[in-house]
Design brief:
Elements: E1 12-15, H1 28-36, H2 40-47, H3 50-56, H4 62-73, H5 79-89, H6 96-105, E2 109-114, H7 118-128, E3 136-139, H8 140-143, H9 150-160, E4 167-171, H10 174-182, E5 186-189, H11 193-205
Parallel strand pairs: 1-2, 1-4, 2-3, 4-5
Helix pairs in contact: 1-2, 3-4
């Protein structure tokens, strides 16, 4: 794996949140499978129903999403149990906070662009206090639009007063980094967390 960027042009770095800074839904399926006595794959599919996008776009509440998950999948589990499992899964990914703090000290302007729900963000901001690390933040539920819609990329650029060619965008979804690249961003596809963190550090501050 390598990062092909023109680091001399980069003034602003925009991070995704879930699976880049914090563990998000990934891993929840492993906790659900033994409880529901289903396969991990079935649990994963069960979480990714249409209403997940509606949740991230602020069109349904977290309770409404979980009730729909239970109904669609015919799962024998309570909403409060699902809410507790997903919150227990939210954990900082090792090394990312330290990397962001160092980039901030180096003088980079920092942004956060995340598809997420209001209820989960309220919980995560209170627990991890990560939002203070960034110059500007844009959550999908605020604007009712998710990546890879180009509107959200332009909105975070406007908030940061930044140009695409001077921005490095970091996300775990290749579809989202591809959309950013088409708009002129430099990009990093965040995969294996330890390796990605090392490469970001090496590329941007040696």
């Amino acid at each position: 794996m390598s990062i092909l960027v023109n680091k001399d042009m980069i003034k602003t770095i925009i991070f995704d949140l879930a699976e880049v800074y914090l563990m998000g839904l990934v891993g929840v399926e492993e906790k659900l499978a033994p409880i529901l006595k289903i396969s991990i794959k079935s649990a994963e599919r069960g979480l990714h129903i249409k209403e997940l996008t509606d949740l991230f776009e602020g069109k349904v509440s977290e309770n409404e999403y979980w009730r729909k998950v239970i109904k669609v999948n015919k799962w024998n589990i309570k909403v409060n149990q699902l809410k507790r499992i997903v919150r227990d899964n939210f954990q900082e990914i090792h090394g990312v906070r330290e990397t962001i703090e160092r980039l901030r000290r180096k003088g980079f302007k920092l942004g956060l662009l995340s598809d997420h729900s209001k209820e989960w963000i309220d919980y995560c901001e209170k627990k991890f206090d990560f939002h203070k690390l960034f110059n500007s933040i844009l959550y999908s539920f605020e604007v009712s639009v998710c990546k890879p819609n180009k509107k959200v990329y332009q909105l975070i650029l406007d908030r940061l007063n930044a140009k695409p060619k001077e921005c490095l965008f970091i996300d775990d979804f290749p579809e989202y980094t591809a959309a950013a690249k088409n708009l002129g961003f430099q990009t990093v596809h965040f995969t294996d967390s330890e390796e990605s963190v090392k490469l970001i550090r090496k590329t941007l501050y040696g």
